[in-house]
Design goal:
- The structure is a homodimer of 333-residue chains.
- With 333 residues, the first copy, chain A, is of the alpha/beta class.
- Chain A folds into two domains: 2-122 and 302-332, Quinone Oxidoreductase, Chain A, domain 1 (Alpha-Beta Complex), CATH 3.90.180; 125-276, Quinone Oxidoreductase, Chain A, domain 1.
- The first copy, chain A, is 31% helix and 29% strand.
- Chain A contains 13 helices and 18 strands.
- The first copy, chain A, has helices spanning 43-50, 116-120, 123-136, 153-165, 179-184, 192-197, 215-220, 245-254, 260-266, 275-278, 282-291, 294-297, 313-321; strands spanning 2-7, 18-23, 31-41, 66-74, 86-90, 99-103, 107-109, 144-147, 168-173, 188-191, 204-209, 223-231, 238-239, 242-243, 257-259, 269-272, 304-309, 328-332.
- In chain A, strands 3, 4, 5, 6, 7, 17 and 18 form a seven-stranded mixed beta sheet that branches. In chain A, strands 10-9-8-11-12-16 form a six-stranded parallel beta sheet. In chain A, strands 1-2 form a two-stranded antiparallel sheet.
- In chain A, helix 13 links the parallel strand 17 (304-309) and strand 18.
- In chain A, helix 3 (123-136) packs across helix 4.
- The two termini of chain A are 16 Å apart.
- Chain A binds chain B through residues 131, 135-136, 138, 140, 212, 216, 225-226, 228, 230-231, 252, 255-261, 263-274, 277-278, 281, 284, and chain B through 131, 135-136, 138, 140, 212, 216, 225-226, 228, 230-231, 252, 255-261, 263-274, 277-278, 281, 284.
């Protein structure tokens, strides 16, 4: 018996990934084998296919950080799920496969409100929002929170989670027509231009910055005393539907070095989060998996953008790469 | 009727401050007049006497951030305290005086367990520990916390406050014989050398750094994923009982600029706190004053090092300046 997987055997274009078969192995003690229905596609997968993602394993390897599916088999000692259960799981690589076999601590029963499709769209974005808001910033009721990229996969969850905590949330977008969507999530909405033009939008206890580069210093001025910024990435390296290496280089060069001496004048703090990096640690992976309980508790809804057949994974990458996606991109097995 | 105060009219040596008399003015609406019994002396006072404290008011001015005493009179609308009450208060300058008249929001009833002497020793150290642990780091039960300067005025309070929150605390000292004192406060104790020699002392959720300079980067390596450092100052600029300008310059030069790009690899955060700067904000001053309720709740005990007669304020400065003090230095009126 075999299963299918999509491997990166050499770096290159979207169409250079390999669709291959592998023998199915029984799960070991403490492991769960999942018949995967959907695999989540992340921008980091594109980066590692292009060969410039430092944390990627040696070639050949199977990318993929998140799946949903049905439990096919469990190894000795596993009691948290059983054969036939619908589940979601975080995978530290290996998610682009019709069968994954992983520690039970990474497997979570499919939330009641989720479908297999929406379930696969959840882990990475949810883990990122959870780590940023609750593990780093330690958000509290009454906080004034600014979410820079309020319409993205992480941002939409972050607004919902911050509102559930009792925070007052401002969400930014570059597109005026998306303001109504942000307001529908319970936040006040401004365009980035409106925000920068209005110095009264200040005194934030938490700013979640996504675009990096020069935006970090511009936005830090809007923190209140004892406030904190969490940086999630450098989306300012992406624009006009295309990733552009020159743009990424410029964004990296503009990403500031923060003088600790000047930090004393500001009385604020700054964090940077690479959620996928945190998930390398099995203790954190297990902790994050357990925290998925919040999906039902807070009735969180992810936004699935487009589903591709798994064998068309190259098309899925091309779609993500040119930034056509407005929600999560999935592979269906 | 007059009261006495100690003013900085020109910058210079410890003995150059001026002891002078001023007419007593009645408190305005919302104000409280306090007959001061003790004024706290802080290292920042020494720095501003020497003329290199950027936040100091224009000369001539009266330094001093904290007092204890008895309410002499209250202005219209004040109901929180009444004439004859023993109180402690934070003052944003002006504390070196036998009478201070300040907003009622800065005045707190003397905690039950405090004397007027210990009360005056509390505000600045307590506010600093409170801002660092609760307002910036947002310490939680179960946190692994490292307090670098565990025997200082802030550090001893920080250990007690962190333990009350349910954190596991490690305290450092440069003096092996002070380890028993730290352990008596409920922390594990190591010398700085022992700490640096043992890489297993790592995975901290919070590090409170006091010495600044190169210690910041050495200690940041000991943070766990999503952990945070709060920097309180640059005590590494002081050594061998003397402040030394060359040393301070070296400490400043060694104080790092933190690359946000590298912060993504670390998955941690960094804050810097200038508590006196935060207290310039009346909202924060009031919030901190209200939080003094914790002194009784947690039964916090400050360490009074030495009390000088107010007219000998120059001697008090000289004592602090040569780092002979091991606890709070007070002026008695």
């Amino acid at each position: 018996m075999t299963h299918h997987e999509i491997a990166i055997e050499k770096f290159g274009t979207a169409q250079c990934m390999t669709y291959r078969d592998r023998a199915v192995m029984p799960p070991g003690a403490g492991e769960v084998a999942i018949d995967v229905k959907y695999s989540g596609v992340n921008f980091a997968d594109v980066q590692m296919r292009l060969g410039f993602y430092p944390d990627a394993p040696k070639k050949p390897f199977v990318p993929g950080y998140e799946v949903s599916g049905v439990v096919a088999d469990v190894g000795a000692g596993v009691t948290s799920v059983k054969r036939g259960d619908s589940v979601v799981a975080g995978t530290y690589f290996g998610g682009y496969a019709s069968r994954v076999t992983i520690p039970a601590t990474q497997v979570f029963p499919l939330p009641k409100n989720a479908t297999l499709e929406s379930g696969a769209a959840m882990p990475v974005n949810y883990f990122t929002a959870q780590l940023a808001l609750h593990d780093m910033a330690r958000i509290r009721a009454g906080d004034k929170v600014l979410i820079e990229c309020a319409t993205g996969g992480v941002g939409t969850l972050a607004i919902q989670m911050a509102r559930h905590t009792g925070a007052e949330v401002v969400g930014l977008t570059t597109s005026p027509h998306k303001k109504a969507f942000i307001e529908g999530l319970g936040a006040k909405a401004y365009t980035l231009d409106e925000f920068y033009a209005d110095p009264a939008l200040a005194g934030f206890d938490l700013i979640v910055n996504s675009s990096g580069g020069a935006h970090i210093q511009r936005q830090r001025k809007r923190l209140g005393l004892t406030g904190r910024m969490v940086c999630l990435g450098m989306s300012s390296g992406v624009k006009d539907g295309r990733r552009n290496f020159a743009r990424i280089a410029v964004a990296a060069l503009r990403t500031p070095r923060i003088s600790v001496l000047k930090l004393f004048d500001a009385n604020t703090g700054i964090y940077a989060l690479n959620a996928l990096h945190v998930l390398r640690d099995p203790v954190w992976m297990e902790r994050m998996t357990r925290s998925l309980v919040a999906i039902d508790k807070l009735d969180l809804r992810p936004h699935v953008g487009k589903v591709f057949a798994a064998k068309d994974a190259g098309d899925a990458h091309a779609f993500l790469e040119t930034k056509q996606a407005t929600g999560k991109v999935l592979l269906a097995w």
